[in-house]
Amino acid sequence: MKNKAILQIDEQKYPLPIITGSEGEKGIDISKLRSQTGYVTLDPGFANTGSSTSNITFIDGDKGILKYRGYDIEDLAANSRFVEVAYLLIWGELPTTEQLRAFSEMLTDNALIHENLKNHFEGFPWNAHPMAMLSAMINALSCYHPELVDPENRKEELKAAARLMSKIRTIAAFSYKMSLGEPFIYPDPNRRYVANLLHMMFSVPHQRYECVPEIAKALDKIMMLHADHEQNCSTSTVRMVASAGSNLFSSISAGVCALWGNLHGGANMGVISMLKQIHEGGMDIKKCIEMAKDKNSEFRLMGFGHRVYKNYDPRAKILKEQADKVFSILKHNDPLLDIARNLEEAALKDSYFQDRKLYPNVDFYSGLIMRAVGIPTDMFTVLFAIGRLPGWIAHWREVNDDPNGRISRPRQIYTGQTQRKYIPIEQR
Ligand code: CMC
Q1: What burial letters (b/e) apply to 303-330, b meaning 16+ CB within 10 Å?
Q2: Does the annotation mark 363 as catalytic?
Q3: Predicted confidence band at 262 (pLDDT cuts at 50, 70, 90)?
Q4: Is 29 left (phi over 0), alpha (psi -120 to 50) or beta?
Q5: What are the pLDDT digits (tens) for 5-23?
Q6: Which of 51, 194, 202, 260 is least surrounded by CB atoms within 10 angstroms?
Q7: Nearest-CA neighbor of 227 among 88, 320, 333?
């Protein structure tokens, strides 16, 4: 039978349609499986499950290919800026000069946050994690823009996207200032996206932070390279929340929480703490590799391995070059960079990592660049979130635009207690 997979359960055969993506990826459509057979599939971690079709991002993990809307990530990184790529992801096409200018203006016009929203920061303790504040403040933002969360009001989406992209940056910088106990620095309309973020983070009332253009470029690349990565944990979270009909702000707030986890966006912080641990403990690289391989040890090589890439993560390649550039511009001598390089070299030669196809991922070098720029470790994942926002918005729109969309509601195989007789509390 052409274009069908055959599933046999006992004597009964069930033809299942095969669907082919535009890049030739093949999937077996099991959407009618339960109604036809009474069975569900079991796939912990969804490693073999396509939750939807999507036309935003393509990854070939075996070949190390990443494309946004059909454009190679290498081309975009060499020629575009984060804001331009954000537009591409959200609206599907690279902007014309006029469209980019209009979008950039919207970003500038929406950079301030409502003064009352600013007061919410005072409710957090000074040592609150910026990811907790970011998630809470994004959700709170919806209260200040009720017109943008009306599901019938889709024509306001461009404004909502620009608002969110601009304000997330202000919220991020304010949460950093809060942790320092320093006054908030308002956005500067004359600075570009990344330079403005650095200004709000590092300027103080008596001294404006002057950004080295090459540093802003490197951070712009970090954001662009993080901008989307198809159905990763946080994006799947955004899509799942969106599928319930939740508004853009609440869906993205949930995505921020998912990103916070140390196996996901939090890994960039994990890389630095691992490198510090090695440095401060004077640990031997060989020993670290052995520990990472030892299943009885808690130690994992952070910044290594990926669910999808079974080849060098193309984003890590670009960031490795950027790390070299930034370190030479800043004349920065960070012993952690040498440790990272040695660790990478040793792991790539080791059969454990070779056999499992474990390569450096995007987080391996991004943290070192941010650290060189003076961004504190706690803020790394926040910068990842700012970068990932356009992807989340694009996926939220895709879910809402899908005429066949259904609420996400996975099944399970129940393995708990079967029928039990209720025991009154005094008899337990
Ligand atoms: N160090 C040592 N062993 C590893 C590592 C690692 N970093 N990553 C995977 N392995 C081993 C793992 O123990 C398993 O071995 P075995 O087959 O003997 O049981 C095998 O490789 C397959 O790993 P897995 O855990 O089944 O892979 P996964 O797809 O479930 O997890 C991952 C992917 C990224 C969570 C994992 O590789 C990991 O924990 N890496 C470190 C954390 C990290 O860098 N995360 C950032 C991911 S990239 C940014 C993002 O998308 O958020």
Answers
A1: bbbbebbbebbbbbbbbbebbeebbeeb
A2: yes
A3: confident
A4: beta
A5: 999 999 999 999 999 999 9
A6: 51
A7: 88
